[in-house]
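To close the chapter, one final illustration. This time we ask the reader to focus less on the individual chains and more on the assembly as a whole: which components sit near each other, and how the overall shape emerges from the parts.
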Amino acid sequence: MRYTIAVTTPVRQAGKTVTAVNLAASLAICEKKTLLIDCDPNEQASYGTSLLTAPLKSSGFYAVMTDRARLSQEILASTLPFLKILPAGTDFSKADFLFEDMDGHAFQMRDRLRTIAADYDYIIIDTPANMPNLSRSILLAADWALIPVNMDVRFPVRLPVQLSEIKKLVAQILLLRDQFQSGLKVAGIVLNKCGETGEAWEKSAKDALSPLDDFILSTRIPDSKAVRSAFAVGKPVGVHDVMSFGAMACLDLAAELTGRLKRASTGPVL
Amino acid sequence: MNIIAPKIMRIAETGYIDVIRDHINWEAVKTAVKHHFDIDVHENVRYIHGALTVCQGEAAVRLDFDLEIKFSLFINGDGKLLQITALEGRGLIPEDSLSPDSEPCLNAEAVAAASAEAVELAEMINEINN
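The assembled structure is written out below.
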């Protein structure tokens, strides 16, 4: 069974790209055929190119969506045999306008993805925070939404505000289900940039998040040096330092998520 | 109204920055980069750009470099390293956008607010998934 997962939240710097790239790489390390679609224009210069086995030649996502290129030809091999990448590519900043007209383009992305879906076990989409029309089309193309929350105590968007913003996202998912009969569900909430357990912040945050316990993945992405330095050089932590605690956490995340999705596909959801 | 030709200002600024760049203590920079990014600096550092700026309320010189990552050094008038950041667009949160002096834990009011949001969010996700 194939799963298309949109890593999404309206909160900027919540860890969408860290989650998407590390999840995709971890799935690939586990020999799951994985496609990572870079739809975060801020990151196209880093993750879109650093994993590629050859110099970037793809015209990328925007060219595919405007029929200037074929999707299957724009997907590039990576240094991980089971991971392929569709870079954001040039002109990506125009992508949001492309999906403004919902009548014509609501399912354009979903339809494109269907043409290559059989080649992959998992399609991971790194969703932009500030392109509402494109984000909506990604939600319509995905089966599952994975929502990162930034747990860094220094993060300027405080936890209640992050949750309030995520509520807007979830309200949008509900709306899309009504309007377009979207089958999108919430795969879970992943806690990013977690500090050491036992800190006062961790305890108070855990109390605050307890109503969401059923949806929060037990694996947390640590705010470790390995994760930070891997991100800085544009690599998944599993490639940068496979023996690190951060790499292990990302592999655990992939295992936990795949287990959840399989159970959800055969029984009551999550 | 110009009282000095812009060209003179640019030349002066460039000269000032160049002198600072030429006298950087690379051992200290290596230590800072290692501490912040866990990356070893060898001889492959490329200078990109320099500018006068304000950092943490102080006049500072910003020097951008590229090794495995692109990073910026912010140096104040005393030569002290005020800040080191990855350049924007690489996804790291600039240090100056963080709040190191902020309350290290959620206060009761924030816990209550977050908890209320979490309750509503859980109900909405349940509606979607079931």
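Chain A has 13 helices and seven strands. The two ends of chain A are 17 Å apart (CA to CA). With these observations in hand, you are ready for the problems at the end of the chapter.
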